Amino acid sequence: HIEYVEELLLSSKNATLIANDVGEILIPRLLRECEKNFLVQLLRIVLGYRVNQSRRRPEYESILEDHWLARAIERNKSAIGQSIPQDAANIGLELMHEIVRRNAESFSYVYIPTIEDHDQTRFRDRYECQLTYFTRDMLVLLSESETASFVRILIREKHAIFVRLALFLITQKYEACSSMFWSIRWNPLDRIAITHELFQLIDLHAA
After folding, report:
1. Exposure string for 57-84, b = 16+ CB within 10 A, e = fewer
2. Would you state the pLDDT for residue 145?
3. Is the entire prediction scored with pTM above 0.85?
4. Taking the C-alpha atoms of 32, 33, 37 and 40 in order, what is their torsion angle to the nearest 10 degrees?
C-alpha cells in the first residue's frame, strides 16, 4: 500500500485528495500501531519532492504540496521524534544531499536566514525550509553521542546548510560537541553563509 500512496501523490490529479489523509490518518495510524518499518517507508515518500521546471531555475516542491506537508509535520512531528528520530533525520539529510547534488544553490540563507526558529524566516512553508527544520528537530532529539556522530560528519561538508546545522547542534549540545568545532582546520569566518550560526555559537559559549 505504501507504493500506492506514492503513485497517488505523484499524480497531480489525485495528490490533493490523499494529501490530507496522509498526515491525518496514515502517519498517526502507523505511529499508534508501532509499525516503524512502514513508517520509515512512508516518511521517505511524504518528505519527498518534485521538481518544478516552469521557473527561471528548477525549484523543489513537496510531493505532498507545501501546505499539506506543513500540516502533516505539525501534527506528527512530536510522535515521529519519539518513535524514529534517527531514521527521520537520516531521511531528511539524504533528501537534502540529493537536492544539493542537483543544484548547489539550494538551501540558500536568503530563504533560510537562521537554523533556529526566528521572525526573519519569511518562507517557512517553502519545501527546502520545511525539510531543513524537520531534520533539525529530529537531530536535536537524539542522544548527545548520536548527535555528536552526525556533527562529526556535517561539520566537514562543503555545502553551507550542513555546516550550519552542525554549528546549531554544537550550540545546543556544546558540552558533547564543542571539541569538533574547536578542532576544525579551516577558518569559519571565511564562509559568509554560516555567519549567523557561527556568531550564535560564539556569543553563547565563547564570549
Report:
1. eebbebbbbbebbbbbbeebbeebbebb
2. 94
3. yes
4. -20
CB 137 within 8 A of CB 77: yes
Name 64's Cβ contacts closer than 8 Å, sequence gap at least 6. Answer: 9, 15, 19, 22, 23, 46, 72
Q: Which three cell numbers stand for residue 23?
A: 498526515
Residue 110 is placed in which grid cell? Answer: 536568503
127: amino acid identity, one letter: Y
Q: What is the pLDDT of residues 17-54, one digit of tens each?
A: 788 888 999 999 999 999 999 999 999 999 999 898 77
Report H helices in 53-110. 66-83, 85-102
**70, 96, 75: which is closest to 24 by C-alpha?**
75
In contact, 109 and 196? CB cutoff 8 Å: yes
For residue 17, give the 3-state DSSP assignment: helix
Alpha carbon distances (Å) from 91 to 65, 85, 88, 108: 18, 10, 5, 20
Number of neighbours of residue 91 by Cβ within 10 angstroms = 23
